[in-house]
Amino acid sequence: MLQQSDFDFPEPRTRGGRRKGAGRPIRKSGVAHATRERVSRHDPRIVTIKLAEGLPWLRESLEARALTHCIREAQRADFRIVHDSIQRDHVHFIVEADTKAALSNGMKWLNSRIARTLKMIWRRTGRVFRERFHDRVLKTLREVRNALVYVLNNHLKHGTLYDPCGMAEEPDVFSSGRFFDGWAGRPPDPEASGAGAIVVRGGWKLTHGWRRRYRAIDLDAAPRSAAG
Fold it and tell me: How many domains does the chain have?
């Protein structure tokens, strides 16, 4: 006589389909993969990239020169790096982009170029950046001025002023501060508008807009928040 066990066939073995615990483990990133705010050529953005843990500092002569070269090479008609600040384990930028694609492509190229260059200098492989870049839109003139203070004087926040000649009243040498024409009592360096300048001149908000409402920036102005 047939019994129930005679009908208990093993589950068929398959190659495809969803299986519990399968697939690449999900790595939590400090930057949520949410939709970025709308990109407009009229609104600059503050962008930050962070190094992975355990890597050498960026505020060294060789590394800083390499990053400066990458920044110069990354300039495009639709993607413009207006200011930058190199810190020990991260870099701040103020950029302008005409479209969402221009921002994405410009930052991908810049990140890739910096990563390849640093790996050659350090003679190592592996991940260079901790996560994808973080950015914030600067919509108001107040946000623009605060972002300029935050980026150009970021060394004051971290206590990393490089002052080999005792010239503490000069902009941070690891930033684009020497090209900035909004300091109180200090003109920009002559080569700021030259063809070989590292950074480029920004749009209305970054050049004229914020100065119509706010005073010039002091070299010792302490940064508070990027856009608050």
Answer: 1
